[in-house]
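Chapter summary example.
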Amino acid sequence: MKWLRIVTSLLVALLVGTGIGKIKRAKPIVNNLEASDVPRQAFTPLGSLELLGATGVIVGLLIPPLGVLTAACLICYFAGAVYAHIRAGDENIAPAGSGLIMSVIVVALQRQRLNLRNRRDTSSPSSR
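The structure predicted for these 128 residues follows.
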């Protein structure tokens, strides 16, 4: 559980920072998006998705199935971001790549947590 909280905190920091940066049109983030040929009208929706993803993984600490679902959606989001950077010839994939890796780790840790919880529930005397 400790590692889940640590990785989730790092992922939330990335999502909130880049999400707000996209919505407020922060210069470094705008430069990164323009290098990937992302249209300006997509900045706010992408930033909103990142803020929703941050909310989902935080709530997922309390409701593990939601955490798995949200992190799985973030895997798709960040895989698309990495693809967009590569397709545009932009070599700065560090933010998207780190988001992808952290999302995969959160899914794995949440799944492990769910499996441990299910194993305990089925082995308890009250469930027999």
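To summarize the output: The chain has five helices and no strands.
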